Amino acid sequence: LAVYQSLLELECRAPAVYAAVYQPLVPAAALNSRMPSRRYTYGVLQNLQNERGASCMHLASAGKRTDYERALIAARSAVNLATLIPGTAADVTAVRRRCDEMIVSVGNELALALGQLDASEGGPPTEAALAALERASRSAAEAFYRAFGEYNSVVKQALEECHASSSASTSPDWQAMRCFDLLKNCLGETRAWLCGALALPRSGLEGLPARATTDLLFCLREQRARTEELRALAPPRMLELLGAAVEMDPELRSLLAKLEESLDVCTVRKAGLIPPR
Fold first, then answer.
1. If you average pLDDT over each of 98-102, 182-186, 258-262, which comes out highest?
2. What's the pLDDT tens digit per position in 151-178?
3. Looking at residue 234, what DSSP letter applies?
4. Is the alpha carbon torsion for 68, 59, 204, 4 positive or negative?
5. Which residues make Cβ contacts (< 8 Å) with residue 44, sequence separation at least 6?
């Protein structure tokens, strides 16, 4: 949860940064013509990105953490208050339905496994009970990663629709802000990945698909590529202001460096970088 909150604070700087960037750079008439899609990007999509991270965290914990559940309820409520693009609204409804079904399934599976452990009556747990617990942990990992992939698809499609609808897509300033949108989404994907992986029980880490660490590595590399692209596109003053929205605190930077170096969540957990229990 600490990781989720730290990256959430990082992403929430974006709306204020956008206003500071655009007011001095764009004439008022042009700004007004562009504001609807910018409000959508930094309002609706930011909340949807938050929902992605909270959903991954909730599923990975098999619904057993009330603080994770509260984070998800708050994120969904924020999205519900907005007006989504019709196609995006249908996709979000479908993803939520699958997530709700998965949380019931993994929660029931974990409850049955814990019941078998309780049946040991103080003695050593049976092999059957331990195997059931491991299967439940793997199911939580599979559910989290399915939700991660589906939310990524929805958010990326919504971003593409938002950018395609802009009448100012050839403007250099607009291209810089589009790059910033994509960079910000990379941060959101990283947050969702970390929140899910770090919320899993230790035995659940082995249930992640083989591509999971590769997906994270690609995301981290895309962050660097988008950062370099933004530096090339944005004028100095815009770049100075945008830097405040993507600057990470030392602990998060250290966590990502360890992950990129080892590609091993277990190594990161052993270093003590885990959600508080």
1. 98-102
2. 999 999 888 887 776 655 667 778 888 8
3. S
4. negative
5. 79, 82, 83, 84, 158
- Asked if residue 42 has pLDDT above 90, the reply is no
Q: Are 191 and 8 in contact (CB under 8 A)?
A: yes
Return the structure tokens found at 271: 């270093």
What is the widest separation between alpha-carbon atoms in the chain? 75
Please return the burial class of 225, using the count of CB atoms within 10 Å of its CB with bins 0-12, 13-18 and 19+.
middle
Is 168 strand, coil or helix?
coil
For 51, residues 6+ apart whose C-beta sits below 8 A from its C-beta are 72, 75, 76, 78, 79, 151
Q: Two tokens at 130?
A: 């331990």
pTM: 0.80
Element (H, E) at 152: helix 127-164
8 A C-beta contact, residue 31 and residue 23: yes
